[in-house]
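so my prof wants the structure for this chain in the tokens format not the other one, which i didnt know existed until like an hour ago. anyway here's the sequence
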Amino acid sequence: MQDTDTLNQILQQLTRLADVSEARLADTRRAVDGDIDWSAIAFRWRDDGRLQAVPSPSLLPLDRLHGIDTQKQRLVANTRQFVAGRPSNNALLWGARGTGKSSLVRALLHAFADDGLRMVEVPAHRLVDLPDLVQTLAERDERFIVFSDDLSFEAGDGSYKALKAVLDGSLSAAPDNVVIYATSNRRHLLPEYQSENQAAQVVDGEIHHGEAVEEKVSLSERFGLWLSFYPFDQVNYLAIAARHLAAHGIEADIGVDSPWERAALQWALARGNRSGRTAEQFARDWAGRDTPAS
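here's what i got, hopefully its the right format
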């Protein structure tokens, strides 16, 4: 009798789990098939599993970005191929914080929206929904960049497997009208530990990494385009600050030891880095003062 009661309890728990899974799948289908404003150019995937139009997306002109000309040229070329319906790659933008990775991706929407480009931002913790989202976007005529910003996974986080499957490795091929662009401070997206290198072996003079390392490398390798971003030197930092000041209507000459240059360098020194984000923050502060000097 006790065994029967135990089996009944297990059966009830499994039934509840199945009901929850079915309800969640139904909610996802309603979210992606329901009332969506497809006239928008930008969307976000919400935590409740719904695709929501962004009425006023943050758009940035490409010419505002300075010091990343090589990265800009390669990503723009890849995106132009994608918008034109030609073969293109998923892209991973990785490197130092505040160096323009996210801004570069957002600027693509400003440059190519009139050509049919659309963007869907998906937070890293919702990547488990990626297969359902991609399947829905495949039915549209527009070209979609699925954008995941500041992407990284901690040890034991299995949600990256959904990303791997969509990038390359799933039985169903990714649709031609969807590419994935991700930014990260980590080249391999997953934490790397010194102990993992100890599992490496030398076979016939070649280094063979352990399974943990191979698993991490296999994720980033599914991105066909890698773009690296590095901290800016002082010259580029000041040039970026000058461009942001110009956007606020302030003329800023470089190399004349002007008050704004000294203030910009002091601003960066106080924050411990010279980055595009730091330059933009300084420009907002300087432009917001009552009587900024040029």
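also thought this was worth mentioning. The radius of gyration is 23 Å.
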